[in-house]
Amino acid sequence: MTGLLVPVLGGLAGVLAVVVVVLAVRLSHLRRQIRRDLRVVRDEQNKLQASAEDLRRSNYELEQFAYLASHDLQEPLRKVASFCQLLQRRYAGQLDARADQYIDFAVDGAQRMQALINDLLAFSRVGQAAPEPMLVSSDSALTQARANLAEELEKSGATIEAGHLPLVLAEMSLLTAVFQNLLSNALKFAGEGPPRIVVTARRQEPFWLFSFTDYGMGIDPQYGERIFVLFQRLNDRSYTGTGIGLAMCRKIIENFGGRIWLDTTAQEGTRFCFTLPMPAETEPEELPWEPAAAMLPERKDNYG
């Protein structure tokens, strides 16, 4: 019996040795494969980081160029506008009708170029050496935006409906600019009758979700992305503006860590939604007013 066991055990030992060798070869192959894969992943990560750095540098250089170009254009353009207006005041009616028309064209072109450069300058400044977002009252930002547009609001007879809006992580002057741009658009494209604007906010942790609704002309959903592109205008020149306002709103909101979009489900008028980070210290008992299902506000400001 013992004589039979010895060759069997020897055979098993040989098989185990072969298995061990095969496993060792396969393990060595797997190690090499893993090392190759890791090198590929590291190379791709390095390429991605380099591309991201190139993109950041290009964006920074583009913003610097926009700032410097618009800043340096201010002075010569001011002179052109001033002399065109001087010609208009001094010689209006003294030349023929066509000359008056040419002067009007020159004054209008210079004024539109000034507005464009001012807006481009403001756009290029967003995010440059900006302080860290801090606790800001969106209620105060909306109040300031209304004050800045008080004359236009009164002239249009607009009604603004808003509840008590929350504290957010942002920067006061930039958040005011967002509200002011949205208000200005609502007044500009109000359509028939006095404008009605509804502003609400509700929780969508870790953000506050703002809704800015007007009941004016509305925007075709197919242009929901195009309207946020710099210099894109959907309307003719009979409407004032430079095509920068909504692009600036997007840049500001994204700079604060939120996002802004056109709500294409709105049945009437235009509804913009945007999110802003919710302060970590927000307590449930300190929540500002949140709209009910009907989204009816508790406060109205009627400028009519």
Q: Any descriptors?
A:
304 residues; alpha+beta; 2 domains; two-stranded antiparallel sheet; elongated
Model description:
The chain folds into 2 domains: 1-125; 134-302, Heat Shock Protein 90 (2-Layer Sandwich), CATH 3.30.565.10. The chain has 6 helices and 8 strands; from the N terminus they run H-H-E-H-H-E-E-H-E-E-H-E-E-E. It has helices spanning 2-91, 97-125, 138-148, 150-156, 172-188, 245-255; strands at residues 134-137, 159-162, 167-170, 196-204, 207-214, 260-262, 270-277, 299-302. Strands 6-7-5-4-2-8 form a 6-stranded mixed sheet. A two-stranded antiparallel sheet has the order 1-3. Helix 3 (138-148) crosses helix 5 (172-188).
List the helices and strands and how they pair.
Layout: H1 2-91, H2 97-125, E1 134-137, H3 138-148, H4 150-156, E2 159-162, E3 167-170, H5 172-188, E4 196-204, E5 207-214, H6 245-255, E6 260-262, E7 270-277, E8 299-302
Parallel strand pairs: 2-4
Antiparallel strand pairs: 1-3, 2-8, 4-5, 5-7, 6-7
Would you tell me the structural class of the helices and strands? alpha+beta
Order of helices and strands: HHEHHEEHEEHEEE
CATH architecture designation of the largest domain:
2-Layer Sandwich
The helix count comes to 6
**Strands of the largest sheet, in order across it?**
6-7-5-4-2-8
Q: Per the principal axes of the C-alpha atoms, what is the gross shape?
A: elongated
Summarize the amount of helix as a percent range: 40-55%
Number of β-strand runs: 8
Whole-Å distance between the termini?
113 Å
Contiguous uncertain segments of 5+ residues: 285-299
Let me know the CATH homologous superfamily of the largest domain. Histidine kinase-like ATPase, C-terminal domain
Q: Briefly, what CATH class of the largest domain?
A: Alpha Beta
Strand coverage percent:
5-15%
- Mean pLDDT comes to 76
Radius of gyration: 32 Å
Largest sheet: 6 strands, mixed
- Tally of separate domains: 2
- CATH topology name of the largest domain, in short, is Heat Shock Protein 90
